[in-house]
Structure formats: C-alpha cells, structure tokens
Amino acid sequence: MQVEGAVSEDGRSPCIWDTFTHAGIQPHVTLHHLDLPQILHDEYGGWLSPNIVEDFTAHADVCFREFGDRVSYWSTINEANVFAIGGYDTGMIAPGRCSNPFGRNCAAGNSSLEPYIVAHHELLAHAAVAKLYREKYKAKQNGWIGITIYAFWFSPYSNSTEDVAATQRALDFMILHPLIHGDYPESMKKHVGSRLPSLNRTQVDQVKGSIDFIGLNHYSTVYVKDQANSPDSQRDWGTDMSAQLIRFGTPPDVGLNDTERVDYLSAYLESLLAAVRNGSNARGYFVWSLIDVFEVLSGYEVSYGLYEVDFKDEALPRSLKFSAHWYSNFLKSNHTSSITEQPNLSLQSHFTQ
Description:
This protein has twelve helices and nine strands. It is of the alpha/beta class. The strands form three sheets. Strands 1-2-3-5 form a four-stranded parallel sheet. Strands 4-6-7 form a three-stranded mixed sheet. Strands 8-9 form a two-stranded antiparallel sheet. Helix 3 (51-67) packs parallel to helix 5, helix 4 (80-88) packs antiparallel against helix 5 (114-141) and helix 11 packs parallel to helix 12 (322-333). The longest helix has 28 residues, at 114-141. It is globular, with a radius of gyration of 21 Å.
C-alpha cells in the first residue's frame, strides 16, 4: 500500500486513498505486490513455508479493519503466477531464487520445485484471507475480494492437435483452475508429477470459489507451439508446460506522441465492449499506468504512463502524452461510440494481428 505521512501511526494515518475517496475515486487495493518483509524470509523462508498463510491473513485482517470503510475492492496478490515463476524459477524478481540452468546468478533455490510450493501457498493464503473477509467483514463493509494474474491470451501457432493441446496446457499453468474447480488441472498433475503439492479435502473446499473477481494484467497475446520433447532430466515451470510462447503485440514506447498506444487502447476497449455485449462479466478496466513508474524488470527504461515523467530532472516534471488526452476525452464522453469515433486513429488491434 502507498501511505503518505503515516510514520506517527505505524502506517495508518491519512493516506493517498483518503484523498481519492474525497474526490469520488474508488480505490482498489492490492495486499501483496512482491514486497514481503525481509524478516519473514529470514525467519522461515517467506512464501516457501506454510507459516506464510497465517501471517498473510493477519496482515489482511489489519488492512480490512483499518481501511475497509473506504476500500471496497481487495486483490490479495498481484500477478501470483509471475511471482512464483519470476521469484523462484527464473530468479528475475524478488526474492531472486533459482537454480541452473533456468536462472542467472542463482545463489540459492530449486527451480524445479520451489515455484509450485510458492504457488500452492499463494492459493492457500488467498483462500484464508477470502474466508476471513467473508466471515468477519463483508456483512458490514460490503466489499469484494479477488486475486490478480498475469494473463497472456494464448492462441495456437497452428491448427495441429499438438499446438492446440499445448495452448490448453499454457492456460492450465496460469493457476486459476483451483480457484474455480477446487483442484489443479490434470495436465499439471501429469506434467509436474510429485513436485506439485496436493490439496486436501478441506483445502479444496476453501480454495474453490474463493474469488469475487479475477484481475487480469494483460499486455499482449502469444502464439503457442507444442514443445513436448522437453528434456526429462532438468525441469522447471516452462519445461513442465511443454510449450513455446511466441509473444507479440505490445505497443512500443514512442514518447509524447504515442499514437500506437492510443491505437492499442482503442482496439482493446473496443474488443472488451464486444465481449461484454457477448455476455462477458467484465466489471472494470484499468490503464497501466497513470504516470511513468519504476518497472520491475525494466526500471525507468520503459514508459507505460499516460503522463511522461522526466526522471533525469530532479523536479520530475510530468507531461501529458497523446494517450492521456485521448483517454480523458474517452472517459468524459460517457458513451461507447467514443471508442471508435476518435479522429485519425487506426483501430487495427495490436493484440490480435
């Protein structure tokens, strides 16, 4: 959580969402975004230990109690699948655990085993927090709780039976299946084997249906090719999935005149509208991001903001990009025709071409 001027009250004095709510903006809060306290890593290994379930639930309890009167939407974990893979398989994000040959500069870890342990504990921790909220707070606060996944859309590279099956495996490995059905999909059980933790009857009942919503962080679509001949001797999340992902579609960083980003946003919203009209239960949309920020994998080298920030200037001046003007006009128009009626914009989708 981003808290301002809160030292005197242990992080619980007026903060950024107090300002937002007074302006009529509804905050959506994430409880964990790669930022587990170091002491929990040192004490028992953090997300590698089942102890994390109790501590994470206690953390959520404090947040619900202190902020639940102003926050109606809670996401327990941001990009739970990426955290498990990036933190414990490839080692690209905190806490940087991995093993050769799957990561770089691997000081500690086991890429074949640890990502599944962490993902398992994420599911259990999420379910415990959801249970807490529903039993203790929902009746009074009337809020909603969910989890956020990094979500490619997967399209088969070809119409071959193998590529179609690989595409389904890629979807299965997004770890959403237990939240809907109560257990890991058969493809994960088959390809991961004994390294995949099991859910007991109580856990199945608690995990299944523990979401009011699913948050999807989506940048692009990928083609999926079967890679069934992955070596059996050394395996991690990627080789277990037995699929090659070919990514495309994220608009480049082109400065203030980011017409390709506007093209992307316009096409995406048009497709989202079509999905809603076709029965999708989509409830909201967020642009990433309002302003340029420190990106986990790229630092300040990429610019996703609607507002550009000059990080070389100590004053950090902000400038509106073309996409900021477009999105502002889109929101102010308050009717769906604005998606396709903006002037001089190509509506070719960058994520479906």
